[in-house]
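Lecture notes, unit on protein representations.

Consider one protein chain, 742 amino acids long.
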Amino acid sequence: MKKFYILCLWICIICCVNRNNCIYAENVNYKLECTDGTIIDSTPNGVVKLNVIIFGRIGCYNTKTVLENLKYTKYINDERVNFIYVDSDQANIEDISMFEKQINNSNVKFCRCDNSMIMWRMMGISSVTFPAIAYVDTTGSVRDKSTYIVSKSTMDRAISNILGEEMYDTNFEVWTYGALLQNDARNMLNLINDFRHSEDAWYWDEDDSRKIKCDNLNSLTYDYELEKVAVTRAIEITAYFEHERPNGEMFDSAYPSDITYMCKGENIASGYEDEKAVFEAWKEENEKYDGQGHRRNMLEKDYNAIGIACFVVNGRYFWVQEFGYVDKFTSDQKQKKNYDETYKKYSLKISDEIMKLDEAYCVGDCVNVPFQDKYVDNLRLYCYGKYSYIQLYFPTIYYVENSNIVKCNEEGELFGLKEGITTITLKAKISGNFVYEKKVKVIVNKKDIAEAYLDIDDDEDDYEYTGKPIRPDFFVSYDYIELKEGIDYEVEYKNNVGPGKCEFIIRGIGRFKGVLYGSFYIKKSELWYEKENRVDISEVINALNKEKLLKQIEFGKLKFNTNGIKENSVGLKWKKVASAKKYVIYGNVCGKGKKYIKIATVNKLKYVIKKISGKKLKKGTNYKFTCLALDKDGKVITAAKAVHVVTAGGKFGNVKELNLTNVVNKKLTLKKGKTFIVKFKINIPKGKSIANHRGVRFESSDMDIAKVDVKNGKIIAKKKGKCKIFVYTQNGCYRVVSLKVN
């Protein structure tokens, strides 16, 4: 037995189908009493070759719909075919006569039947969703069958088949632009399976009086063959939002013929922008039984396979779930398919009878084309059909009046060849034999590059002063097509060497004209500071001897500190400075009037001092040292803050460790204008005290971003940006805080 469940969701439109088909093993004998007193039996004779029997119910919407569709079938007046309505509830002949008057179709015979088993034997099933249709030939054999609503095209096809006639194909091809979002669609599988296994797996009974729990449901397996069906249907419902396909067939005709699905079902929806939103809508938690069709589909125990698709057109999302049951999954069902998620052209078949198409529109009477490829916004359709909210495009023939100005390929892609004006003629078959024609003026000109899109990587942190001209990374596009320097434009730069705002001009060439302006920033780099602030050694040493401030003397550049202290030696180390060719160590014994003496010139980043002016270092004695980084000309790039240390062997010691107590992970974020005081703790050797020369000090790498009090560590956030806060002891122990100001 095969079951079919189909549901759609579009704002508030929902329909539910339970459809069953099977193979018949015997002929069925019957006699039907018509409202006009005639009798119809199981073997059509004479001219009549076929009885099309519609089993339904009085007042059933689906039954009324099929009986209405009969008016449009091409066989409605064919004397070889009887169309017969049989009331499945065995209503009395008077009620059936009243129903006949409502339908008002003299070509349909309305009958009653005392034997309720006739329908079940003809359909070969134990339950149906009305109407049920049986096609019975002159031998009493049921040649075809269906349940639920069928279109006139589907009925015509079945009758043509039985009568041995060729079915006239009224379908024609249209196409649309859209994108498949299959990664998003596949993400819904886990949501559905979690739902099937949750406490929320329930639905109302038909009386809305009791919740029916769905216990022990199996997980659905993702079926990539069903996904192909879902993809087809997602594209189709953009044009015709029904479970009937735009070519007149029912949704299940899209299922693969080489795989037997015992159960089939479909949910469709539109307007939800992600898989979670449409899934929540399909759950229908606040609906009663009649409004929980999608929910019941997702909780159906007879399903074990699912395929899902999402198709987006002009920002509107269309979703499809296809369900099924198979005894065994094939390798094709398990094989993952890859889908292109970019916008592209997709074609679909539309029945002239379904869509009632007779008109199309061109966007305008004039198309402007630059010297580049461009699609004509050509014939587009606002179709006369159910729930079609998108544009459909027709395969169109183009005739160009002057091919020296513009050329056009079969896809409607225009190529501007030279400036000028010409005309193209567009022709397309709309439906049936109707041909649409329109003349469109085409103007080929140079496009203003000022209308192009310019994307500049203008983060100030990306461009630092190098002493050389800087060209930023940027991207120029027009109509989503990247433009090329030297072909479409030239670039002129201004002030792109030194720090500050730098400007550049993009001038259109070739197929473009006009100018486009851009700008970026170059920030001051360490190299810039070095070049701008280099001084003589004597100036630095003089400032150190007099304990005066000098901008070249700072902690953050060299991070000068100790590296092992013994009774008769002091180890020193520091960080490399860009452009420094050598380093000079100065020092002396601490004390008033003790000036800095040159000790050594080195190329390394560490040095051990054992003598000053030929005299060995003494134990338990206080010393001071500094380091100068020199360029190739012997100028001072930067100088270290002096370190004050005491050699081992005396009653004083040096700070062993510095820790920050209120800064987590050495990172700090402040809003502009806010303050923060850095707190710390120092670790000194047991039994020792510190000879205090300077205490703990603080320094900011960029005073424009954040200012810090040298002695108490109070930070004031000045402007947005990033900088470093250095915290250091007199002997060079330090910590660095990464500060961000928002």
